[in-house]
Amino acid sequence: MKKIPADFSPEMSKAIQSINYASAGKIGLQFKRRFWEEDEHLYGGSSLTNMDITQIYYPPTDYFGKKGVLLGYYAYGGVADKLGAMSYAEREKLALAQGAKIHPQYPKEFESSYSINWKTVKYQEGGWVSYSANDRKTHYPTLCKPDNRIYLAGEHISYITAWQAGAIESAREVVTDIHQRVMKS
Is 45 within the bounds of a domain? Predict the structure, then answer.
């Protein structure tokens, strides 16, 4: 919201401008066959690494399907910044090279990929809110209150940041508040 023109109160505008978002990115890798199941008997779960890809996630669905998609990396923080600074093709190349150290089938079975760097997604510009202790004391209470008729909801307006549960909790509180406000008038 930092870049969206709006007529928020000065207090709300300051709170919005003061909050930062975490760096995060992912890549999905599609393979011709589900070699992790067929060859290695991996049915869900993850492989944690000390490489930039950090981890590989195996889908817990569609077992023995013809094709499959692995989460080739889910990076955050400085590693996400490093990967996010790469081109799409460079991120794909890195994920394939590092993933092949765990699964040598990668080069032969790879079909396509899709990656995202949330810092570059317009209007989002990050994976999730990243509050400091001071932000929680000073700006968080302002963001949680309506600004005239504007209410904010989402994972960033909860203590369960980075999760859908926080977004749902926040939305429920806003809907309850609006309902109570309407019933009083």
Answer: yes
Map tokens 């810092």 to a residue. 119
Confidence of residue 50 (pLDDT cuts 50, 70, 90): very high
Give residue for tokens 């040598």.
Answer: 104
Quick one: 28 and 115 in the same domain? yes
**Residue 114's pLDDT band (cuts 50, 70, 90):** very high
Quick one: DSSP state of residue 155?
Answer: G
Q: What is the pTM of this model?
A: 0.84
Q: List, in sequence order, every residue forming a beta bridge with 116; answer none if it has no partner.
A: 26
My answer on whether 66 and 105 are in the same domain is yes
How crowded is the C-beta side of 6, counted as CA atoms within 13 Å? Answer: 17
- Local confidence band at 4 (pLDDT 50, 70, 90 cut-offs): confident
Based on the fold, state whether residues 113 and 135 are members of the same structural domain: no
Read off the CATH number of the domain in which 177 is found. 1.10.10.1620
| C-alpha to C-alpha distance for 145 and 140, rounded to whole angstroms | 9
Domain that holds residue 180: 10-21+129-184
* CA separation for the pair 118, 128 (Å, rounded): 9
Torsion of CA 134, 139, 144, 146, to 10 degrees: 160
d(CA 151, CA 143): 8
